[in-house]
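Two proteins, back to back. First:
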Amino acid sequence: MSRLLLSLLSAAALAGCAVGPDYHKPDLALTPAFHTPAPVAEPGAGTVRPDVWWRAFGDAELSRVVERAGAQNLDLLQARARLIQSRAAARSAGAALLPVVDATGSAAKLDQSLDGPIGTIGRHLPGFERNVDDYTLGLGASWEIDLFGGLRRGREAARADADASAAQADAVKVAIEADAADAYLQVRAYQARIAVAQRQQQVEQDLVALLTRRLDQGVSAERDLHLAEAALEGVRASIPPLNTGLEAELNRLDVLMGAQPGTWRAELTPTGAVPFPPAFAEAATPGDLLRHRPDVIAAEARIRAADARIGAAISEYYPKLSLSALIGVDSLAASTVFHGDAQQSQLAAGLRWRLFDFGRIDAEVAAARGKEAEALAAYRLSVLKAAEEVENAFTGLGDERARAVALQRQIIALTTARRQAEDAYEGGVSSLVEVRDADRDLLAASDQLVQARAGAARAAVASFRALGGGWSR
């Protein structure tokens, strides 16, 4: 028996290889640069440190909002809890490679029936005891020898799952930080647009009052007054949707920060300017996505897990060897529990081999290979979608910046035209209506400029999110 166990243990020690495929990183043919390059920095713009990119906007309130969301968001807390579960599963899979040792003990008192099968026979035998006490103590150990690496492949899969969970938690954090920044930027944009609309409303009210006086004096047409009143009501009608959007973004921010809607409203209610988007610290490449995008990293880890599970499934073709041992004492009297005669021991080896299962192992291996193919396709798709998001974000950032520059030039021209209209009115060459029309055009362009600047800032946030956010994690 001892020779058999020694042979089995030697075989276990020599079994260094695990069945199934070893993982190889997928080879993706990516271009050396994005089709749409990152826009050049605006004059005076800050540069970005990837792990705290939001600070480069130079807005202290934005930084507070993003960092508060990163610390308190409930979606992120769920992701971290899933990571704890995944790491615990990995430790459990690793423990399966080691022996299990159990301690047992019992004390029993038995009153044997004299009318039962044992009592009926034993009552006629000399020395038969109806009342028996039984005391046992022992240590038992069992160990499945991982001859063909099935357990090791299971451990690899569990560790890869833990890596995927860690990367997914990072992906959630990047998304939460970007969502918080985006919501904050929209809050500032709505506040600025409401302020412009209120100024525009005042301009329209002044124009209606002017035309009403002129109509009473008989120097203005009634039609002009009605058109001005219609324009005033149009401006008034534009304000409620802006208020609705502002309220929705404020509520969204509170939830992102793990708080009931309304909690942080007072802090965000004072109107602030839309911050300018920062510059990129370095030129990003498609290859960076493989290293920095958490969802891409998670997708690759799932391929590793799927590869390992193929090996775990293949290992079922081979025999399973287990060892077990028991040492302890068993006595009918408490006083003799630790006597030498009460000692008992057992050493055993077990073998299990699925010889005929009507294709179940074949099906399990095929399913595992299908999972691996699915994971590989998901990985490739995640890379393509990541590149798509970067291209779209870079395009949006460049176009919104160009739009803002054009609108800024338009506002300069409209400001000059408004001043000239006022000079002409004071010189008696034109009417005050022309001055109010110039005010209206200037305010409409100002509203467009607010939207363009907010669009550029939001596109910058989308760029940081698409590139993977905090690379230091």
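And the second protein:
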Amino acid sequence: MYTNIEERACDLAEYIIENKATVRAAAKQFNISKSTVHKDLTERLKTVSPALYHQVRELLDINKAERHIRGGMATRRKYKGENA
């Protein structure tokens, strides 16, 4: 459990950048909600580490642009009976 919110925000950003992870994957890894991850990365990180914020913002924008494709692929796997 993190006591320092700014430290958590930086750790989340580093995790997402290193692993090119989604907000959902980061939330699962850190055992917090997607809303908390999003708030940490879009609001808190901006004041704590602007350079890190801009790096993670680029990845979040890419993930947002591609999410409909990943959703379509997941639906296809679901109805074709493929696992994972």
